[in-house]
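Team,

Forwarding the record for the chain on the shared tracking sheet. I've put the sequence and predicted structure together so nobody has to dig through attachments.
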Amino acid sequence: MPSIAMTWPGVWEAAIRPLPHVEIAYPVQTNTVFARLRDAVTQGMYQRGWKYYTHVSPDSARLMCSWDTTAEDVNAFAADLADLTAKQALANPPGVP
């Protein structure tokens, strides 16, 4: 069975693409997903203990995992991201930047 690190970008992309205030920045072609996230969401993820790079561009996060990342890890990250983006959606309804 393949490691989650080999298959997670597609799973990851499917989990986060429908979230409000999340945009997949580039086509997923490797083991990396670049997502545009609001700074408040990134800060909230950092406060929850998640770490990722944001040096690619001011609003893009480079999401990767290690070889020992489990499906549960990916699901937990996606759940935290969903919670924070839902709060952003309530604070900033559609049409509000």
